[in-house]
């Protein structure tokens, strides 16, 4: 039950953070480009102790050991200290100074924070992150479901937790999951009728986990969601934004896998986490979107190299890469065809640029934890588990 409570709090954090740029944007409706940021999985830890080892998640719980070095900015293997939260917000303010809004796709609290009392610590962490974000960006309101963006775009925030596999113990679960899907279908129909384009954001993505190839969603919901976003409404979706794996990553949704060339498609962009607990550097992205055609054009990823910062006591948020430079293409938009091209080039026999970039990008330049090239290729490419296995079984080289 405790885990369930934690889960709900995570869900409510489908947020849109509005910056002062939003107001400015409204005054300049004619401009063709807008910017926004995507950040996720802050996992702020109220009990972070910079002197304690990662064996007990940097907390002074039973059996803790002192670490061999102090880690004031954060430690690989632990959730985020307050310093890292504040530093991330400051870096976002600087790197995304002309951004008009922020997609914050969940997990504000550290792991394992529920206790016999329930979730007061989870709430406290959410409150801290919210108020600190508010201090930096001034506009901040939780967005559970719907928001109009400049009249021509809509941000939909379905609660994907109900389509997820792990927590299905609640009797009304199926009913709510069903209603969520119904709601999404209605909103997409509405957007299509009014000629609007849609950004979808939520926490746990459709598709597979790159760590173990487990698929997150209940298959029937994964399939029906794919039919909506990659089928009838593929041209309505400007982008889907998810997180949860703590990795910078991509997912393609192909409706008809028998005939992929002519099939309609959609795509998901996942962002690396702020928390370095699963062996990645903290990172976030600044997107550019064309407002005349409501399409994603590009993004920059920024990151903090935690080991360099710690060693030299000099934390500096650095530019990592620009999507269009790392994955050069004739296609000048970030859309389903572009992600299709990207996924195919991950296993190119003549050009290593895409794979090299992708592999280091996933962890924002921390050393990736495992190497299984064709597994990762199939995970990016196939959002349904059966399709993944068909893809994976086709390759003889597995790791
Ligand atoms: Zn997380």
From TrEMBL:
<keyword id="KW-0325">Glycoprotein</keyword>
<keyword id="KW-0732">Signal</keyword>
<dbReference type="InterPro" id="IPR029052">
    <property type="entry name" value="Metallo-depent_PP-like"/>
</dbReference>
<keyword id="KW-0378">Hydrolase</keyword>
<protein>
    <recommendedName>
        <fullName>Sphingomyelin phosphodiesterase</fullName>
    </recommendedName>
</protein>
<feature type="signal peptide">
    <location>
        <begin position="1"/>
        <end position="21"/>
    </location>
</feature>
């Amino acid at each position: 039950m405790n885990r369930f409570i934690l889960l709900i709090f995570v869900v409510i954090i489908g947020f849109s953070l509005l910056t002062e740029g939003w107001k400015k944007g409204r005054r300049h409706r004619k401009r063709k480009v807008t910017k926004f940021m995507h950040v996720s999985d802050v996992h702020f830890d109220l009990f972070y102790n910079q002197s304690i080892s990662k064996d007990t998640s940097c907390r002074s719980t039973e059996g803790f050991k002192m670490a061999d070095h102090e880690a004031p900015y954060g430690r690989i293997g632990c959730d985020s200290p307050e310093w890292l939260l504040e530093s991330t917000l400051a870096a976002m303010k600087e790197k995304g100074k002309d951004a008009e809004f922020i997609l914050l796709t969940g997990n504000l609290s550290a792991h394992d924070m529920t206790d016999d009392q329930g979730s007061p610590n989870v709430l406290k962490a959410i409150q801290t992150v919210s108020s600190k974000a508010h201090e930096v960006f001034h506009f901040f309101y939780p967005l559970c479901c719907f928001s109009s963006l400049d009249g021509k775009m809509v941000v939909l925030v379905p609660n994907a937790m109900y389509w997820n596999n792990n927590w299905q113990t609640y009797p009304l679960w199926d009913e709510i999951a069903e209603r969520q899907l119904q709601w999404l279908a209605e909103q997409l129909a509405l957007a299509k009728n009014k000629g609007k384009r849609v950004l979808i954001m939520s926490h746990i993505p459709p598709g597979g986990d790159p760590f173990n190839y487990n698929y997150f969603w209940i298959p029937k919901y994964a399939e029906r969601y794919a039919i909506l976003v990659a089928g009838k409404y593929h041209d309505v979706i400007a982008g889907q934004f998810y997180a949860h794996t703590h990795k910078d990553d991509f997912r393609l949704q192909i409706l008809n896998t028998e005939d992929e060339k002519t099939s309609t498609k959609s795509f998901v962009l996942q962002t690396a986490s702020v928390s370095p607990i699963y062996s990645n550097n903290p990172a976030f992205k600044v997107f550019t979107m064309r407002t005349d055609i409501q399409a994603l054009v590009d993004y920059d990823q920024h990151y903090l190299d935690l080991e360099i910062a710690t060693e030299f006591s000099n934390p500096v948020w650095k530019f990592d890469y620009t999507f269009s430079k790392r994955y050069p293409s004739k296609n000048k938009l970030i859309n389903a065809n572009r992600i299709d091209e990207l996924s195919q080039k991950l296993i190119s026999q003549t050009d290593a640029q895409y794979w090299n970039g992708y592999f280091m990008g996933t962890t924002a330049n921390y050393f990736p934890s495992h190497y299984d090239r064709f597994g990762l290729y199939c995970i990016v490419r196939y959002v349904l588990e059966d399709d993944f296995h068909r893809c994976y079984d086709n390759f003889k080289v597995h790791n």
